[in-house]
Specification:
The protein is α+β, with helices and mostly antiparallel strands. It has one domain. Helices cover 30% and strands 26% of the residues. Strands 1-2-3-4 form a four-stranded antiparallel β-sheet, covered by helices on one side. The longest helix has 17 residues. The radius of gyration is 17 Å and the shape is globular. The C terminus is likely disordered.
């Protein structure tokens, strides 16, 4: 069964927008629609804001042990790819992973 993540936002014009993200066979599918629309819009290239919101949702679910870290990591990769393709995009909301080996013993006090 697919794991579906749903959230609602408000556009700059004040319209309500519902977004759904599902992962099936290691591939994310993101769709959205405005309130009052009948058909869903399927995004081949999702908005960066949608990916960041999905990441936030997945991190919260991962912290509650309701989701695999692989899902979080796959969305982080999508965000990195989106930013690489669009260098004028906003600053990263996803913090880079920390290499624990780079800390010295003095830093751990």
């Amino acid at each position: 069964m697919r794991n579906v993540h749903v959230w609602k936002t408000t556009t700059e014009d004040g319209e309500k927008r519902e977004v759904r993200a599902s992962k099936f066979s290691k591939e994310w599918k993101i769709q959205s629609k405005l309130k009052g629309e009948e058909d869903w819009t399927y995004h081949k290239v999702p908005l960066l804001s949608d990916l960041e919101e999905l990441h936030d949702i997945l991190v919260r679910k991962y912290q509650r042990k309701r989701l695999s870290y692989d899902d979080v990591a796959s969305v982080e990769q999508l965000i990195r790819e989106h930013r690489a393709a669009n260098p004028t995009a906003s600053k990263p909301a996803v913090q880079p992973e920390v290499d624990e080996d780079s800390f010295s013993e003095a830093d751990s006090d």
